[in-house]
Design a protein that fits this description.
Elements lengths: L11 H4 E9 L4 H14 L3 E8 L7 E9 L13 E4 L2 H7 L8 E5 L13 E5 L1 H8 L5 H12 L5 H11 L8 H14 L1
Parallel strand pairs: 1-4, 4-5, 5-6
Antiparallel strand pairs: 1-3, 2-3
Helix pairs in contact: 2-5, 2-6, 4-5, 4-7, 5-7, 6-7
């Protein structure tokens, strides 16, 4: 047996997707991250999730690191994400430069007029707040952004995220499930 040969490892992008999701506290970015990793687990992938809150939760800064992978994840910390979802201008300024070349930046164009100015990444602009308002509740903007992420993901599926969303919404907010599902689908279609 020849032990000098290294095992073949699939290309990095085919088996691991790393995302930073960022916005103000209260925009639901943590819920979006939790739904993404739960959908990844449902699909049999390995996942990590690390939340980070600013000094104040509602209205302060918030972001989370989300990794979905077909193989072991060596570290949950993401320095150069494949994806970055930004809900507001401060998040664009803080994280757009970290997206690796060839990666995808998903921007809430309802709140962010600026662009990243980078030509080595894909920049997708989703009017997440408008989508949510059109569906009946501004709080569904996070689901529009999540839908765009899922559309670009090779590891997550819309069906898995829809199923998990039904389980992830607390009973006291069950009445908002249809609005969230509609916003998710709208973001998916516009990505």
């Amino acid at each position: 047996m020849n032990t000098d040969r290294q095992p073949e490892i699939p290309p990095y992008g085919d088996c691991v997707e790393r995302a930073i999701m960022a916005g103000f506290g209260g925009q639901g970015i943590m819920l979006a991250g939790k739904v993404a990793i739960r959908a990844g687990m449902f699909l049999g992938h390995r996942v990590t999730y690390i939340p980070s809150y600013g000094a104040e939760v509602r209205g302060g800064t918030a972001h989370c690191h989300v990794t979905v992978s077909r193989r072991e994840i060596p570290s949950p910390i993401i320095a150069r994400p494949d994806f970055c979802l930004v809900m507001n201008t401060p998040s664009l300024a803080k994280f757009s430069g970290r997206v690796q070349a060839g990666g995808t930046l998903i921007v809430n164009s309802s709140l962010v007029d600026e662009t990243s100015g980078r030509d080595d990444i894909s920049e997708i602009r989703i009017p997440a707040n408008r989508i949510a308002e059109d569906r009946g509740n501004i709080k569904a903007a996070n689901m529009a952004m999540l839908g765009a992420f899922v559309r670009r993901s090779e590891l997550l599926t819309l069906e898995a995220v829809q199923r998990i969303l039904g389980e992830a919404i607390p009973p006291r907010h069950r009445s908002l499930l249809e609005i969230n599902l509609a916003a998710l689908r709208d973001g998916y279609e516009q990505a």
